[in-house]
Write a structure and sequence with these properties.
The complex is a heterodimer.
Chain A lengths: L1 E5 L5 H9 L3 E5 L6 E8 L5 E6 L11 H10 L11 E7 L3 H12 L5 E6 L1 H6 L2 E3 L1 H7 L5 E3 L8 H14 L10 H18 L5 H9 L4 H5 L4 H17 L7 H13 L4 E3 L6 H9 L4 H20 L1 H18 L7 H19 L2 H17 L1 H14 L8 H6 L4 H7 L6 H10 L9 H16 L1 H30 L9 E2 L8 H17 L1 H17 L4 H10 L5 H15 L1 H13 L6 H9 L6 H9 L11 H9 L15 H13 L4 H11 L2 H29 L1
Parallel strand pairs in A: 1-4, 1-5, 5-6, 6-8
Antiparallel strand pairs in A: 2-3, 3-4, 7-9
Helix pairs in contact in A: 3-11, 7-8, 7-10, 13-16, 14-15, 15-24, 16-19, 16-23, 19-32, 20-22, 21-22, 21-31, 22-31, 24-32, 25-26, 26-27, 27-28, 28-29, 31-33, 32-33
Chain B lengths: L1 E2 L8 E6 L5 H8 L7 E7 L6 E5 L2 E5 L1 H4 L3 E3 L14
Antiparallel strand pairs in B: 1-6, 2-3, 2-6, 3-4, 4-5
Classes of the chains: A alpha/beta, B alpha+beta.
């Protein structure tokens, strides 16, 4: 196995795609939400080797899970993973010094290394000439090749270099540490062996001494009371050598690298930087934000509107399949309903998200690969930093207004794991498009006709802000009090602008969609089947006969709607709804609304058609259905202190909308949250928190408004 | 000697000292920002924070609060190394 390592923005993934030709497998590292991408790489000499694309990083001093995976993978500390036989270091040819810092750290691991100087075309454009032979000599004779993965140039040389590395196993020369530092490293290694029985490498000992807060310390299970004095003494020893222990590593490595690079890079005539010119426009004080708003608006509109058509096609495809599959099964109503509403409906329930996911990742791919994503974060960071998020939270939160599923997947672009978690936790508060039908139904039926179109628009806009209003304090409390994180450093490279490579963008888009279908898709399917069963059973034939007998003269459709309403009323879901109605009584919900609310937990947009069923106007009800509006307006409380008053009073209408704005009524969101946070803990927390918050807020609205009006 | 956060856009400075205890400074050191390095405050974000600084042929963004521990010597009249490096 060969590992591909390198700084971010070096074109490493492009090179990986070029080397493996998309014969890739994507999985996850055990216990963390870091994707493991591997593929088979042809070495050009008839042999093949497994190539693993490790996450990009600047230093082996791990602060994030992504970086920790790299250090663990390179030292063979991941269960079920072999230590790589060789490492391919991908470096940006235009900034060798910084890229080779990682090489100095790799040298300490004692693995054979080949160096790929990627983006050779850009270096040439900048007038840089690199003497690869001289560089190879300075680096202990390891293979050094130039490549331009974007253009597909030099890829064959990279294949040859991998073969050569596996054959000759040349190592990078290790730095000669000052004597005191060597002694400190030996002290730490000996102390760990004594305290825990583990033998660690010099590279690992370096992490413990050089990093102010090493993630390695936790993993070694070395008790802090034993660890701290040893580390303190070791750092004191380093200090005696004249180095600040926390600065020693970069000082020593960079000093040596400067010498190693002398005469290697020849600079030609300097050219004006194109990226700087673009930045003068895109990051301009006034024009920058305007262009940013334009780009993001276009991006949001595309996710929202462009996805509408394929979503409608999928929906009509699902409906068409039902009409084809259902009729032959007329004799078996249970099987018919299971197939049509359960299975086909369940597949449709996650397929319908695919257009938005694909379009969102198409845009994210373009934004990231072009270099604009870092600029977007730069522009927006100020607005998010105070509540523990960062500039990269913007895109997921914005796309949350279309749909939480793709935007949860897009939180992967946030490097800081705490900010990523907090962003994912508040994304479901954004008013997604599935909340629109219930707002539209309520506003059109009860707000507009009574208070006029002006108030109708105010309420519509207001409902879209309710979630945002709660999301910001939630993020603040979560990051400051629950996760207890100090504001994380936001050191972000603003990389060179580059033309995105269509193959890379499309490939990443496809990988994200495939992962969603295989993971969250199965959960969504299961939830749909369960809810179908709960609202279908028990199904006693006598119910239908009784209704038919009681309405001998009514039209067939009316009878059908009444039969359906009666079945739902006596189903498990209906009985449960009636039983728990007292819980929703303070919110002003009768049992019919309660059943609608319960049935909407897997997918909130179901509420309109469920109200259609419980109010006996048939399951095809839409937000603009006049029958449904009339049935709801006519509905009155039949018993209790409110008997005779309308159920859908202003208080109940507002309460219902606030409940839907805040409640965690989306199975796919919960499933995706579990997938992205690496377990059910945060998903369950989000479900309980949002649902409780919705109940409290809706109760408050109902109780206040009913007293005022 | 002034904190980096007080530099004006377009101004150059030579890094005099930083605080290796801070996680931010550790990351910047890994990127090659070490004492003696010449840097340029390229610009501030439209809302005044964060900053974009250029050193060693790369542009890096960091927050105002993170730039406070970086002390620079603005008196040093020094052209930045390889200004063309970020084309």
């Amino acid at each position: 196995m060969v590992a591909l390592v390198g700084n971010p923005n070096t074109g490493k993934s492009t090179l990986f795609n070029a080397l493996t030709g998309l014969r890739q497998r994507v999985g996850n590292y055990p216990g963390v939400t870091v994707a493991r991408k591997s593929g088979s790489c042809d070495l050009g000499n008839g042999t093949k080797v497994e190539l693993v694309d490790l996450p990009g990083l600047y230093s082996l001093a791990a602060t994030s899970p992504d970086e920790q995976v790299v250090t663990d993978a390179l030292s063979g500390n991941i269960s079920g993973e072999r230590q790589p036989d060789a490492v391919i270091l991908v470096a940006d040819a235009t900034n060798l010094l910084r890229n080779l810092f990682l090489a100095s750290q790799l040298a300490e691991l004692g693995l054979p290394v080949a160096l790929v100087l990627n983006q050779a075309d850009v270096a040439k454009e900048q007038g840089l000439r690199i003497d690869t032979g001289l560089l190879s000599d300075r680096l202990g004779g390891i293979p050094v090749v130039m490549a331009s993965a974007w253009k597909g140039e030099g890829v064959i040389d990279v294949r040859r270099a991998i073969a050569q590395t596996l054959e000759r196993k040349k190592l990078l020369p290790r730095v000669v540490w000052p004597e005191k530092i060597l002694a400190a490293l030996e002290d730490v290694t000996a102390a760990i062996l004594k305290d825990t029985g583990r033998k660690i490498t010099s590279a690992e000992a370096q992490r413990l001494i050089f990093d102010s807060n090493s993630a390695l310390a936790e993993r070694l299970q070395w008790k802090p009371e034993q660890r701290d004095p040893v580390i303190r003494q070791a750092r004191e020893k380093v200090r005696q050598s004249g180095y600040n222990p926390l600065a020693a590593e970069p000082l020593v490595h960079y000093a040596r690298l400067r010498k190693a690079l002398e005469g290697v890079v020849k600079e030609g005539a300097a050219r004006a930087s194109r990226s700087a010119a673009v930045d003068r426009l895109l990051l301009h004080r006034f024009l920058g934000p305007v262009l940013f708003a334009g780009i993001m608006l276009g991006f949001f509109a595309s996710v929202f509107w462009l996805a509408k058509f394929p979503m409608e096609w999928i929906q009509s495809g699902v409906d068409w399949t039902k009409t084809v599959v259902a009729p032959p099964l007329d004799a078996y109503p249970m099987l018919q309903s299971l197939l049509a509403d359960g299975i086909i409906g369940g597949v449709g329930a996650f397929l319908v998200f695919l257009p938005q996911i694909l379009i969102l990742f198409l845009f994210i791919g373009i934004l990231e690969d072009s270099g604009y994503m870092a600029r977007a974060a730069f522009i927006m960071d100020r607005l998010f930093s105070w509540c523990g998020l960062n500039g990269k939270s913007f895109v997921p939160l914005l796309s949350g207004f279309a749909c939480a599923i793709p935007s949860l997947l897009s939180t992967r672009t946030i490097e800081d794991p705490k900010a990523r978690l907090a962003t994912a936790f508040v994304v479901p508060f954004m008013s997604c498009s599935a909340r629109f039908p219930i707002y539209a139904l309520m506003c059109a039926a009860f707000i507009g006709p009574v208070y006029g179109p002006g108030w109708q628009s105010v309420v519509m806009v207001g409902m879209h802000c309710v979630g945002l209003f709660f999301a910001v304090p939630t993020a603040f409390v979560l990051t400051r009090l629950v996760l207890k994180v100090k504001p994380q450093p936001f050191v972000l490279e603003l990389p060179r602008y580059q033309m995105p490579k269509p193959r890379d963008v499309l490939w990443r888009m496809w990988q994200n969609a495939a992962e969603f279908v295989s993971k969250a898709g199965t959960v969504i399917f299961a939830i749909t089947i369960i809810v179908w069963a709960l609202s279908y059973f028990p199904r006693d034939a006598s119910v239908a006969e009784r209704i038919k007998a009681a309405n001998p003269t009514a039209a067939e459709e009316v009878v059908k709607a009444k039969v359906q309403a009666a079945y739902v009323e006596q189903s498990y879901m209906g009985s449960f709804g009636k039983a728990v109605q007292p819980v929703f009584d303070p919110l002003g919900f009768d049992w019919k609304i309660t059943v609608g609310v319960l049935a909407s937990f897997p997918a909130r947009e179901v509420i309109v058609s469920t109200l259609g069923v419980t109010y006996s106007v048939g399951e095809g009800a839409k937000a603009d259905s006049q029958h449904l509006r009339k049935a709801m307006k006519d509905a009155k409380w039949s018993e209790g202190p409110r008997a005779g008053t309308p159920i859908f009073s202003l208080a109940a209408v507002l309460s219902l909308m606030v409940f839907f704005a805040l409640c965690s009524q989306c199975g796919p969101t919960v499933a995706t949250l579990a997938q992205e946070t690496g377990g059910w803990k945060w998903a369950a927390g989000s479900f309980v928190y949002m649902t409780a918050l919705a109940w409290v807020a809706a109760t408050a609205v109902y109780q206040v408004v009913i007293r005022i009006s | 000697m002034t904190p980096l956060s007080q530099l004006l856009p377009g101004q150059f400075g030579k890094l005099a000292s930083l605080n290796p205890e801070r996680g931010v400074d550790q990351r910047l050191m890994a990127l090659g920002l070490l004492p003696g390095m010449v840097l340029k405050l390229v610009r501030k974000a439209p809302l005044g924070d964060p900053l974009a600084i250029e050193f060693g042929g790369q542009v890096v963004s960091l927050r105002l609060s993170e730039a406070e521990s970086l002390i620079v010597d603005v008196a040093a009249d020094c052209p930045i190394q390889r200004p063309q490096a970020t084309s």
